[in-house]
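Propose amino acids for all 390 sites.
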């Protein structure tokens, strides 16, 4: 179903243009919530519409056309298809479904348990319906029945005019690489996956070493969510996404040890399908990273920035470039802010290395938790001091 390329990329075997990722998923809903809080705009609708399209594309090549035709002619029940989709969902670590009610062509109601993400799961149900029925199921609702248990309903409707032609999946420029992951002789997947625990009964995957939950997700769907937000709200949105992930990382979800050694960090990024790490350096002066064939780059940036700050107990800024080919270069730099009053809207706590050097003070955006409008977030203050410490 999935193929691991030598470029640090995972693709869908039935549709090699559909990129996949094996990633931690417990940060997804906090990330979406954090972005919404920072920009002051709900993003759930955008998240659902993008994932819905991605799931439709995922299941389209899996389900034979003759089966779809038989269902649409009412010659075949939906039950075996729902069973197959539910099994795929559990294998991918996305949770499990139970069918509550269905009226072909009118609605489907499922009970979702242990969802990897509430809005993404709702979108997965809608996208699965679209793949089978050929109609768009963009009318969706959900309600919580108990902790981690939701009733989710999706119904067919016309595609909203304001989103027509948008939120399409991202196409990546995939190239050959030199990533070599040891493979299982039976299934052909990376042998490292033996260090993860698959529970097919409840539909979860957990890292045996960290306990964190994993899932096989669609970066080609998640990246367009952030691009759409940028179109709607301005060029500061990418920094807001990075900031939301940085804040979440600093809660302790990730460990500094994950990036302390370049070799294992490179292998873990490739295992997750996040790209091929070509350059990496981290010390108290900053962090440098070059990641070829990158995906979900804003999430990666927020993670490494947060881990740099945890490692050296410093606030930081991050600058990056993403080439048209998808190669990411990034620099994380410590902030030097003792010169500024905490009462200033530009100030945030930080620390200053006592070295003999020329210090460049770069504050890339105001404090994001003080209610500034999005266009103000792009303001920059750059002050250079020549300071000699005795």
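Proposal:
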């Amino acid at each position: 179903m999935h193929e691991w390329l030598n470029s640090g990329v995972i693709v869908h075997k039935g549709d090699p243009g559909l990129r996949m990722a094996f990633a931690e998923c417990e940060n997804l809903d906090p990330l979406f919530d954090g972005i919404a809080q920072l920009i002051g705009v709900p993003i759930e609708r955008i998240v659902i519409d993008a994932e819905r399209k991605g799931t439709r594309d995922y299941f389209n090549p899996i389900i034979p056309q003759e089966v779809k035709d038989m269902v649409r002619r009412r010659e075949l029940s939906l039950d075996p298809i729902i069973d197959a989709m539910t099994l795929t969902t559990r294998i991918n670590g996305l949770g499990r479904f139970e069918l509550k009610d269905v009226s072909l062509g009118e609605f489907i109601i499922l009970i979702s348990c242990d969802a990897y993400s509430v809005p993404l799961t709702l979108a997965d149900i809608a996208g699965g319906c679209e793949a089978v029925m050929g109609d768009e199921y963009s009318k969706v609702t959900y309600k919580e029945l108990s902790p981690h248990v939701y009733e989710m309903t999706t119904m067919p409707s016309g595609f909203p005019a304001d989103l027509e032609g948008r939120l399409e999946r991202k196409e990546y420029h995939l190239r050959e690489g030199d990533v070599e992951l040891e493979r299982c002789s039976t299934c052909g997947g990376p042998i490292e996956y033996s260090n993860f625990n698959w529970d097919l009964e409840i539909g979860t995957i957990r890292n045996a070493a960290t306990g964190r939950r994993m899932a096989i997700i669609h970066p080609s769907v998640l990246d367009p969510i952030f691009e759409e937000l940028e179109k709607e709200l301005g060029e500061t949105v990418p920094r807001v996404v990075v900031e939301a992930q940085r804040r979440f990382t600093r809660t302790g979800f990730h460990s500094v040890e994950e990036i302390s050694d370049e070799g294992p960090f490179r292998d873990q990024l490739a295992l997750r399908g996040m790209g091929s790490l070509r350059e990496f350096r981290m010390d108290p002066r900053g962090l440098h990273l070059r990641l070829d064939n990158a995906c979900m780059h804003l999430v990666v940036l927020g993670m490494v920035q947060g881990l740099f700050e945890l490692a050296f107990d410093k606030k930081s800024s991050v600058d990056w470039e993403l080439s048209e080919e998808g190669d990411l270069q990034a620099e994380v730099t410590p902030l030097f802010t003792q010169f500024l009053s905490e009462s200033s809207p530009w100030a945030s706590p930080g620390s200053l290395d006592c070295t003999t050097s020329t210090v460049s003070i770069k504050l890339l955006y105001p404090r994001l938790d003080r209610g500034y409008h999005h266009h103000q977030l792009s303001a920059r203050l750059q002050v250079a001091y020549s300071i000699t410490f005795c």
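The chain has two domains: 1-233, 234-332. The chain has nine helices and 16 strands.
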